[in-house]
Amino acid sequence: MEKAVYLSGQFLLAMPGMSDPRFARAVIAMCSHDSTGAVGIGLGATIDGLGFHDLLEQFGIAPGDAPNAPVHFGGPVEPRRGFVIHSLDWAGQGTIDVAGRWALSSTIDVLRAIAEGKGPSRWVVALGYAGWDAGQLEGELSRPGWFNVLGDTDLLFDTDADDRWTHAFAAAGVDPRLLVAQTGTA
């Protein structure tokens, strides 16, 4: 019997020609993947005109010294729900450790902690997520469309959203300019 391979703590990269335009050049940080399904946070695109200070304002939180970082398009599911992927040096209510590589928090306490300068040292914010039911991601991975790479925290925290897709492929030794959008048949 073949052992299942789960992708928590890795990145999914959309291949050129991804059939769903919402995922063109997507970089998805896989935060949970097991036999019941998968959840990932998109970090390959930011939401125009929306910064971290805008989110804090919606919750009545003064930004303090927190930078007005971009807010990422996390995915098409629950696009008004916020998530913070962050370093493992902070944990709050409901924080999930993702394969020992990063953490995921989705409660207001992480926003307050960041604004007060008491939060995680490294973080990115997103609205929405990408989700797959049991077996759905495995089915998608059996067809062309996605490429997975190890979860690199430098890519996560130190690379601009516009550069993540290209840098993630390069780190895997792949030049995405050489990839084709369609496959052939023999």
TrEMBL record:
GO cellular component, as recorded: cytosol
Superkingdom as given in the UniProt entry: Bacteria
InterPro entries documented for this protein: AlgH-like
HAMAP family: UPF0301
Family assignment from sequence similarity: Belongs to the UPF0301 (AlgH) family.
Protein name from the UniProt record: UPF0301 protein FSB78_08555
